[in-house]
């Protein structure tokens, strides 16, 4: 039955109840093994065959071009530290809030939408810097259409300016093959900031950027450069318009029909509303009641809101939206996919968790494989030696053998030789005591320190066990049994160690430690 357990573990999930009750390895042990192998008991309850065909949520195939409709751009602001990214974002956001009649309370949701007087719209991701950008890229998420590169006109091109350019250039490498032939990079709009400063030198910035293949229009390239001041708000509209102009050239489109696809921008826990995410919708239209999965979480959309905290009923491609209704917190960069039902969402999430645990427990599986070999060997040897003899009879045989080899009384040997470890074994049932004796058999011969079984049996630790242990300076090992308080106290008074375990291999490990601590030579 050991084989049965292990095989089951390796291949599929185990239904604990179906395992034989009189297994050599008790249920606690089996559960532990299952845990180590990363098997979720819950998973075994799912209909495996059904899931195996269709275990994860997947993206739909590319949309029929006829279904595509124009969408507005999603923009990330990047640049060197202190060059004005935050100030620029604040100014852009405030322009918008001021333009709105009921300027609600601005909420930081990781992205916001700006509507221009012309009716055009831009979504800005407001996690400046490339940390967030790289985190998303590492997950293969591609939400940004345009990068606004901020360079301070007094400072010029700096280290993180160059890194930002690099990020923008690499950005689409992992993206859809369709775009590979067109471009490998996210196009840039250059915002030369701090132009209000007397020492500002925008021309120097443009010249410096030539070295990094960012060629402004003045130099015959296609990068639009806008001279701005985030501090005074000067030329903000020109920057927005340059962005819109670029977006028009890109002919950004998306399919607003069918199940939703999107990307998590931020996630946080709100005291009242629980786990909340901000997402950019990339396909389909999100509505209340939609069932979503993202990472290892799922949601039934209870509420959607915009960056002003206003409830919204629908979110289209390119729109940033706050989503309430998640069971757990997904991570930034996680792909959001709509599924058809709650049971399906649970199935997908369970599958993903299971897969992750499998990954995490590859090491544990190795350990289990070792233990399995060890235990099989122990059983084999014991069978060879004792056949079908009951453990009580065979222990008697063993005892007699020992007696012949070691005529000296155990008590005397213990007192004379330090490398003898007298032990008392108590187990809850016949099977567990037998399994322990089998395993101990293999240690008997191979160790310098000798295990001396003083007594063994089924049942809780008794006063008699404690007395025996005291007499022989032994240690009591209990597997799945108890020691009453009075017994524990008595043992403590007599200086007797009682070690209780519920997992066989832990008990064996403990025993090995005890053995090595008694080895005579400590170099
Ligand atoms: P970030 O690190 O790129 O987000 O830069 P911040 O937005 O925090 O700006 C850094 C500093 O530069 C702050 O003290 C800003 O007030 C200042 N700053 C930002 N934009 C301008 C600008 O257009 N003109 C001037 N004079 N100072 C600016």
From TrEMBL:
What range of the intact protein is shown? Answer: 57 to 579 of 688
Q: What is its main location?
A: mitochondrion
Job of this protein: One of the essential components for the initiation of protein synthesis. Protects formylmethionyl-tRNA from spontaneous hydrolysis and promotes its binding to the 30S ribosomal subunits. Also involved in the hydrolysis of GTP during the formation of the 70S ribosomal complex.
State its location(s): Mitochondrion
What's this protein's family per the entry?
Answer: Belongs to the TRAFAC class translation factor GTPase superfamily. Classic translation factor GTPase family. IF-2 subfamily.
In Swiss-Prot or TrEMBL terms, this protein is called Translation initiation factor IF-2, mitochondrial
Q: How does it assemble?
A: Monomer.
Boundaries of each Tr-type G domain copy? 70-253
May I have one GO cellular component term? intracellular organelle lumen
The UniProt keyword set, sorted, is: Coiled coil, GTP-binding, Initiation factor, Mitochondrion, Nucleotide-binding, Phosphoprotein, Protein biosynthesis, Transit peptide
> Which terms does the record give in the GO molecular function aspect?
GTP binding; GTPase activity; translation initiation factor activity
Q: Which residues form a coiled coil?
A: 354-385
Which species is listed as the source? Camelus dromedarius (Dromedary)
| Lineage: superkingdom | Eukaryota
